[in-house]
Amino acid sequence: MLSLAFRLIAHKPLRYLVALFGISVAAGLALIQFGLYRGFRENASVLVDHTDGDVWVCAKFHRNFDFPGIIKRQVLEKTRSASGISWAYPMLIVFAHWKFEDGRTQTVQVVGYDASQAVGGPWAMAVGAPKDLQRSGFVSVDTCSHHKLRYAEIGTVGEINGIRVEVRAMTDGIRSFQGNPIVFTNMDTARAIGQLGQDDVHYVIAGLSEGVSPDEVLPHLRSLDYVEAYSKPVFGLKAQQYWLESTGAGTALAFAALMGLIVGVVVAGQVLYTSTIEHLKEWGTLKAIGATNGQVTLAIVFQAVSWALPAHAVAGGFLYLAMQLIQGKGIHPSIDMHTYLFAGVLTVCVCVLASLLSVMRVMKVEPADVFKG
């Protein structure tokens, strides 16, 4: 029965290839859009997710991680002295302009951290280490932002908001949500760039003592004046939700992925149904000579799988091409192997479900109808 199904496919190879391409495009669209959605979410909370610590303290009425309010250094000291807190360090987020020799500028997101401890500093280091940025004016740049920062490298000297800086470290793959280059530096340099006071802090990142949970310390931290406090997972989710809900981009990407899935179902269903109708007599003959409905169904499902698996492989090629084309941009597709394999299972299921229309049509064929007129 399976060999017959394969012969029916091979009978018109051009139709098979055209159908395969159509399903591949639909699967690739869904895969790329889902990858972009995941990349969207990851970039929105990239600094939170990659920073050590269990608790984040921020200004009252906090809404957006990238545009924080100012809290005073007293909050940092009170956090450090709170019961259950093992350590606490500050962070600054400043948007500024990197000025080039010809007078043109590039907006950068400056992240200030305690470079002596490296909490809140860069990760995924390509050259150097987080502690290399302890001296005033030392910054890091990312390889993904090379073209935006005129291919700045170790030793490159620049100017950010009038402050002279020198590149002393390089990261690889650290992207901001807005697409602006992320520049890490020490707290003093970040304050000078942002024209902030010595006591100004945007975030306090705290680590808990062993055996202490965030729920035990959050009520006390929230009782401090003019601040809010969150556990790391909740704060990361809050950063994601702001951009997903305020821009509508998350909904648009999710809807586009759904559309790709629907297109895949329609294309697969149409191709399978047309193929079934053209060979309706063959299926009826099989039933006339003793083939059961289960055997016929298995053959049609086999046809669906023979489209789904190659289509998913081709869709993976489309995803790889998209990742290469978008490489270095702010939002990028984010798909790991487990997600890709799960998407393959989903593609197979979609094609099998699309084949049910063909199965229902064959079920209605009576063996006696094959011998009529």
Number of strands: 12
Calculate the terminal CA-CA distance, rounded to whole Å. 26 Å
Number of helices: 12
Radius of gyration: 29 Å
What helical percentage do the residues reach?
40-55%
Unreliable residue stretches: none
Task: State the order of secondary-structure elements, H for helix, E for strand.
Answer: HHHEEHEEEEEEEHEEHEHHHHHH
Q: Roughly what is the average pLDDT, rounded to an integer?
A: 84
Strand residue percentage: 15-25%
Secondary-structure-based class equals alpha+beta
* Outline type: elongated
Overview features:
373 residues; 2 domains; ten-stranded mixed β-sheet; two-stranded antiparallel ribbon; 12 helices; 12 strands
Characterize the structure shown.
By secondary structure, the protein is α+β, with helices and mostly antiparallel strands. It has 2 domains: 2-43 and 249-371, no CATH class; 61-225, no CATH class. It has helices at 2-11, 13-44, 46-49, 73-81, 187-194, 214-222, 232-247, 249-278, 280-288, 293-326, 337-354, 356-363, and strands at residues 55-59, 71-72, 85-99, 105-113, 125-127, 138-142, 157-160, 163-171, 182-186, 200-201, 203-208, 227-231. Strands 1, 3, 4, 5, 6, 7, 8, 9, 11 and 12 form a 10-stranded mixed beta sheet that branches. A two-stranded antiparallel sheet has the order 2-10. A hairpin with a 5-residue loop joins strand 3 and strand 4 (105-113). The longest helix is centred in the C-terminal third of the chain and has 34 residues, at 293-326. The protein is elongated and about 90 Å long. The protein starts with a helix and ends in a 10-residue tail after the last helix.
